[in-house]
Write a structure and sequence with these properties.
This protein is 8% helix and 55% strand. It has 154 residues and is mostly beta strands.
Length: 154
């Protein structure tokens, strides 16, 4: 999970709270007033590791301060709780992502978990399905279509 302005990595329980919120709706649409629009930062060891920018016009950028040449720019759509990205970088690498997301009140997460079947609070089965690919010139394409299933017991 990343947070707008002063983001920190969250413990596992916060991910489940975000998943609960995602399951209840709240995923923003791509527009100027969407909670997704803006700059998002992820930190590693207290230092910005990744910056993502979502514009209201559907453009997207992803930058790694430690690797400026690895920055990606492209487009995104966000509708019905699904985020779709399509971006390239200066060396011709192509990145795509399609999967669930949640953005509200200064918090953003992708690959969120949704309830599967009956639940008692966070107790139950949670599922996330998403696909991503990265094509780098001269390297075989890397693609993943993933389903994560997590069961929380009482």
């Amino acid at each position: 999970m990343v947070r707008k302005n002063s983001v920190q990595r969250w413990p596992a329980c916060a991910v489940f709270l975000a998943a609960l919120a995602t399951a209840c709706g709240g995923a923003g649409e791509a527009s100027e007033d969407s909670p997704l629009v803006g700059d998002w930062e992820a930190y590693k060891d207290g230092v910005v590791d990744l910056t993502m920018h979502f514009s209201g016009d559907g453009t997207y950028s992803r930058e790694f301060p430690s690797e400026p040449d690895a920055a990606f720019m492209g487009t995104y759509t966000a509708a019905d709780g699904v985020l779709s990205l399509d971006a390239t970088n200066s060396s011709g690498a192509h990145l795509t992502f399609d999967g669930p997301f949640y953005a509200a009140a200064g918090h953003f997460t992708n690959r969120g978990l949704y309830p599967d079947g009956e639940h008692d609070g966070i107790t139950g089965v949670w599922v996330s399905e998403y696909s991503s690919s990265l094509e780098v010139p001269g390297i075989p394409p890397m693609a993943a279509s993933t389903e994560r299933v997590i069961t929380i017991l009482p």
